[in-house]
Amino acid sequence: xxxxxxxxxxxxxxxxxxxxxxISVAQLFEAHLDGIACAYQPINPxxxxxxxxxxxxxxxxxxxxxxxxxQRLDQFQLAVRxxxxxxGGRTICDSPALANQTLSEISRLYxxxxxxxxxxxxxxxxxxLPEAVLFNSGQPMLLIPYIHTxxxxxxxxxxxxxxxxxxxxxxxxxxxFLHKAGQIEIVAINEDEDVPEDxxxxxxxxxxxxHDLAASANKFACEPHNIHSAILSAAADTSADLLVMxxxxxxxxxxxxxxxxTRGMFKxxxxxxxxxx
Length: 277
Prior knowledge:
The protein has helices spanning 16-29, 52-59, 66-83, 96-106, 129-136, 165-178, 191-194, 201-209, 227-237, 260-268; strands spanning 4-9, 32-40, 87-94, 112-116, 141-144, 156-160, 183-189, 216-220, 242-246, 249-251, 256-258, 273-276. The longest helix is centred in the first third of the chain and has 18 residues, at 66-83. Helix 5 (129-136) links the parallel strand 4 (112-116) and strand 5 (141-144). It has 2 domains: 4-144, Rossmann fold (3-Layer(aba) Sandwich); 156-276, HUPs (Rossmann fold, 3-Layer(aba) Sandwich). The chain is of the alpha/beta class. The chain has 10 helices and 12 strands. It has a 10-stranded mixed beta sheet, with helices on both faces. The protein has a two-stranded antiparallel sheet with strand order 10-11. Belongs to the universal stress protein A family.
């Protein structure tokens, strides 16, 4: 059960949907809710050389300041104060890489982090935060689409299942949400090819039943490069309110590169997604 929740507040774009979702989730579990807003500051130009100079010149336009971060935190605190929830808030200020590292580390002592999806039409240093939190916090992350409005609903929850360790971790982390769900559906893609016999969707249905949770499965095949689109189509067809899925990455010398399905979801997400790594 999530007893304390952290919401990362985007500073350079509207945060209403993230705040509304965070408050609704905290109310659902009677949890403490903290908000954090980050001011991204310039990189020291003295250390920028060669090919990095072009990136530096482009990236400076996405910097934010502490006044903007304070304003976003004030917005959050006013909204959560009216909800009656136990809450707190803070701002931090650092260069983009160090700030996102710090934010992901802060997330380690919360049961759940809530983060806004990147809006590809409005580039920001905040865009790298979901990946940092997913891979570095060690905790589940609720990713809120930038097109989402209003509180989180749990009438229909869709579990993305492939029998993998991240998928199993996501199901475990999602248990409090699943017990609040009206309906649970499992989507299993290319199951005959990719999933061991003992980890098929039917085995997950039996596992959930032992937790007093009823679920059904939707099994189909599609091209590997199109899996994220197939998941989002299934979410639309079932009017899903929440996706539950593992976040996949490939390790490369202490950093993670997003796997194809996760990368596609980060770009195209249309439904809030509870993700675990």
